[in-house]
Specification:
There is one protein chain. The radius of gyration is 41 Å and the shape is elongated. Helices cover 19% and strands 34% of the residues. It has helices spanning 2-20, 49-56, 62-81, and strands at 102-112, 121-125, 142-150, 159-169, 178-186, 195-202, 208-217, 224-234, 241-251. The longest helix is centred in the first third of the chain and has 20 residues, at 62-81. The protein has 2 domains: 2-81, no CATH class; 102-251, Allene oxide cyclase-like (AOC barrel-like), CATH 2.40.480. It is found in: Secreted, Extracellular space, Apoplast.
Length: 252
């Protein structure tokens, strides 16, 4: 009885699907056997295996199998059609909406201490080369820095941030020149939590020089500009230096 009930229900659902699709119904619903005893098979089923399949499961006929295959294919097509596409890592390129640019001027002092009780520039690597000079930072020396930035030239004046990054001594012979990558992060005032990034050559023996501002974060997103440097103090024996910065930053 349970199998017959399931067969009838499946046949009815398939007929309904065919009607919605404009197809002919598969078979009429099965009529309940006039006499069924619990636990015994109906007499019609015991006649032959072929008639059993035809009478008890009309949905297993050729037409029924075609319908099932058709519905399965339609379901798969729908699944593929509505599946999200993750094949691209980029979006469509659209015109950029221009935002209003602003200019900010910054002024502070940069304290770079190589030798002392609390050095802020630490040697990471040093090239072992003959006749590499007597400079505190000979050619090939790589330093990591965490230098304080102050309002005045004295280290005891108000600290407004720090410069973190790397510099490498990049000049041979008697010249002294650095390639610097610094991130100047500010910890007070309107630009607390923001920073500018500098990447440039720094000819430290020149009294005045210029570095390129190549980026920023926080309120200095997409920053560009330049920094004018002037040596305030330098100790040739140790390399300790205090440098005055005047920075022009263009940002959004």
């Amino acid at each position: 009885m349970l199998l017959s009930s399931l067969h009838r229900r499946l046949a009815q659902q398939l007929n309904q699907c065919h009607c919605h699709l404009g197809l002919q119904p598969l078979h009429r619903p099965l009529q309940r056997a006039q006499s069924e005893s619990p636990g015994l098979l109906p007499p019609a089923i015991s006649a032959s295996s072929e008639s059993t399949t035809s009478a008890a499961a009309p949905w297993l006929s050729t037409t029924g199998i075609r319908s099932i295959l058709f519905l399965s294919c339609a379901f798969l097509i729908l699944c593929v059609t509505f599946s999200p596409v993750h094949g691209k890592y980029y979006s469509k390129t659209v015109p950029c909406v221009r935002m209003g640019e602003k200019v900010t001027y910054l002024h502070f002092f940069f304290h770079d201490t190589l030798v002392g009780k609390n050095p802020s520039a630490v040697l990471i690597a040093k090239a072992s080369l003959p006749n590499n000079g007597t400079s505190p930072a000979p050619f090939g020396s790589l330093y990591a820095i965490d230098d304080p930035l102050t309002v005045g030239p004295e280290l005891t004046s108000e600290v407004v941030g720090s410069a973190q990054g790397l510099w490498v001594s990049s000049a041979q012979g008697s010249q002294t020149s650095l390639i610097a990558y610094f991130d100047f992060g500010f910890t007070t005032g309107e630009f607390n939590g923001s920073s500018i990034s500098v990447f440039s050559r720094n000819p430290v023996l020149e009294t005045e020089r210029e570095l390129a501002v190549v980026g920023g974060r926080g309120k200095f997103k997409m920053a560009r500009g330049f920094a004018e440097l002037k040596t305030y103090f330098v100790n040739p024996a140790t390399g300790n230096a205090i440098v005055e910065y005047n920075v022009t930053v263009i940002h959004y």
